[in-house]
Specification:
Elements (H helix, E strand, L loop, with lengths): L14 H9 L21 E7 L10 H15 L8 E7 L4 H13 L5 E5 L7 H6 L3 E5 L14 E3 L4 H15 L5 E6 L2 H12 L6 E5 L7 H9 L4 E5 L4 H11 L5 E4 L6 H8 L1 H4 L3 E4 L13 H12 L9 H19 L5 H8 L27 E7 L4 E9 L8
Parallel strand pairs: 1-2, 1-3, 3-4, 4-5, 6-7, 6-8, 8-9
Antiparallel strand pairs: 10-11, 11-12
Helix pairs in contact: 2-11, 2-12, 5-6, 8-9, 12-13
Length: about 400
C-alpha cells in the first residue's frame, strides 16, 4: 500500500498502523483483491463533493479548497495502492435541489463511491444516496444527520450541535443560573438542533433571532434583545452576520456575555469582520485549530496544511479555518481509504466506522476522531476565551460522552 509518508501531512495519522502491519508481514489490503481492491485495477477512486461556492453561503467555499488540498497531497504521495483519488466537484449554491442533482451526476456518471456535502442541505440527499448504497459525508452539525439508523449510508464530520449546546447550557447553569439568554442562528433545523440541546439543560432563550443565511443586519433584533433584558447571547451564525452583529454590539456599547459556537468562532468568520475588540471576553467550545489564530503560528501541522494549500493552488485560503476543516475532512477520507478492505462505499463506510483515537490535522491538540453509533466522529471540546488577540484555554478538554450528554 502506498500511503502518504510526509511527517505532518494528511495521511501520517495512519503511519503507525501501517508499520505494525508491515512488521507482521502483511498489508492493510490483505484479502481485498476479489472485491474491488485488485492490484491490477489502477482506475481512480472517485469521490464527489457538492459544495456551496456561490449563493447565500458562498463564503464557505474555502472548505472545498481545503478538501482539494488534502486529496492533492495524498495523490502526490502515490494515492492509495497507487490509485489516484479523483475528487469531482460541483456548486450547489446551498440549494437542496441542486445538491441532489449533483449527487446523481457523481454517482451515475462519475462512479463516485462517496459524496461529500456542506451544511444541513445534505439532509435532502440522504434518501437518494441510501437507494444507491453510496456513502454520504456531511460537514454539518444538524441533529437529523445523526440518524444513521434510518439513513445507514450517511455520516457527519462535525459533531452534533446539540451536544455543544448542552455544554453551553451546563456552563450557564453552573456559572450564570439566572442568565437571560438571547440566541442568534439560521432559520433552519440547525437552530432547532441547537435550541433542543439548550432545552435538555433547562435553558429556554428569552429571545431568538432566526434569520436566512447571508443576512447581515440584525440591529433591530439586538434592540429587542436589550429591551427584553438579555444579558447572555449565543451566536451560531456565519459570515457576515455573526461578525457584523458583534461589531454593532460593540459600537453601541452593549456588553453581554457572548458564546460563539465552535464553527463560527474563527478569525475569518467572525473576528476579522467584527474586529478583535468586539469579541474580547467571548467564550467558545472549540474542537479545531484556526490558522489565523496567533497561538498556532508555530504549529507544525498547521504549517504542513499551509504548504499543501500552496502546492494545490489555494494559497489565498490558507489562513481560513474552514479550509483547515475541509483539509481535515479530506485527511479523514484518506485515512479511511487507507484502512479500507475494499475501494467501494461499503469498504469506505466500514473503515470510517473503525476510527478509534485517530489523529486528524484539524483537531485541537489532545482530541481525536472516534466512530460512534451516531455516525459522528468528534466528541471532545476545549472551552476557550478570547483575550483580544487569541483564543486561550479556559479549563480542560471536555468529552460529551464522559459527561453523559452522548451515550
Amino acid at each position: 500500500m502506498n500511503h502518504p509518508a510526509r511527517r505532518g501531512k494528511v495521511a501520517t495519522i495512519a503511519v503507525a498502523a501501517v508499520a505494525m502491519l508491515a512488521l507482521a508481514g502483511c498489508t492493510p489490503r490483505a484479502g481485498a483483491a476479489d472485491t474491488g481492491g485488485s492490484a491490477e485495477d489502477d482506475s481512480p477512486i472517485v469521490i464527489g463533493a457538492s459544495w456551496p461556492q456561490s449563493g447565500p453561503l458562498g463564503s464557505v467555499a474555502p472548505g472545498l479548497s481545503g478538501l482539494e488540498a488534502a486529496i492533492a497531497a495524498a495523490n502526490e504521495d502515490g494515492g492509495i495502492d497507487g490509485r489516484e483519488i479523483k475528487l469531482v466537484t460541483a456548486d450547489d449554491a446551498y440549494d437542496p435541489a441542486r445538491l441532489v442533482e449533483n449527487e446523481r451526476k457523481f454517482v451515475e456518471q462519475d462512479g463516485a463511491i462517496a459524496v461529500v456535502n456542506f451544511g444541513g442541505i445534505a439532509i435532502a440527499g440522504r434518501e437518494y444516496l441510501g437507494r444507491k448504497d453510496v456513502m454520504g459525508v456531511a460537514m454539518a452539525g444538524n441533529s437529523p444527520l445523526s440518524d444513521i439508523e434510518a439513513f445507514p449510508m450517511q455520516r457527519a464530520f462535525w459533531p452534533d450541535v446539540s451536544w455543544e449546546a448542552q455544554l453551553q447550557g451546563k456552563w450557564l447553569n453552573e456559572n450564570a443560573p439566572d442568565a437571560v439568554v438571547g440566541y442568534i442562528g439560521f432559520n433552519n433545523d440547525l437552530t432547532e438542533s441547537h435550541l433542543a440541546g439548550l432545552a435538555a439543560q433547562g435553558i429556554t432563550p428569552a429571545q431568538v433571532a432566526a434569520v436566512p443565511p447571508g443576512t447581515a443586519d440584525l440591529s433591530a433584533q439586538i434592540s429587542q434583545f436589550q429591551a427584553a433584558g438579555v444579558d447572555t447571547v449565543i451566536i451560531n451564525i456565519g459570515a457576515p452576520t455573526g461578525g457584523a452583529t458583534l461589531a454593532y454590539m460593540d459600537q453601541i456599547g452593549w456588553k453581554p456575555t457572548v458564546f460563539l459556537s465552535s464553527t463560527v468562532s474563527d478569525f475569518h468568520t467572525v473576528i476579522g469582520i467584527s474586529g478583535p475588540k468586539a469579541v474580547e471576553g467571548a467564550y467558545s467550545y472549540q474542537f479545531f485549530k484556526d490558522p489565523s489564530d496567533p497561538r498556532y503560528a508555530d504549529d507544525e501541522v498547521v504549517a504542513a496544511f499551509v504548504e499543501d494549500m500552496e502546492a494545490s493552488g489555494h494559497a489565498e485560503d490558507a489562513s481560513n479555518a474552514l479550509a483547515l476543516e475541509g483539509y481535515g475532512l479530506g485527511a479523514a477520507l484518506v485515512e479511511a481509504l487507507g484502512r479500507a478492505e475494499t475501494y467501494d462505499s461499503e469498504g469506505l463506510l466500514a473503515a470510517w466506522d473503525s476510527f478509534d483515537a485517530t489523529e486528524n490535522p484539524m483537531l485541537r491538540d489532545g482530541t481525536t476522531l472516534d466512530a460512534s453509533a451516531h455516525g459522528r466522529v468528534i466528541f471532545q471540546y476545549q472551552l476557550s476565551r478570547f483575550d483580544g488577540t487569541s483564543w486561550t484555554d479556559a479549563g480542560d478538554i471536555e468529552d460529551v460522552r464522559d459527561l453523559g450528554i452522548v451515550e
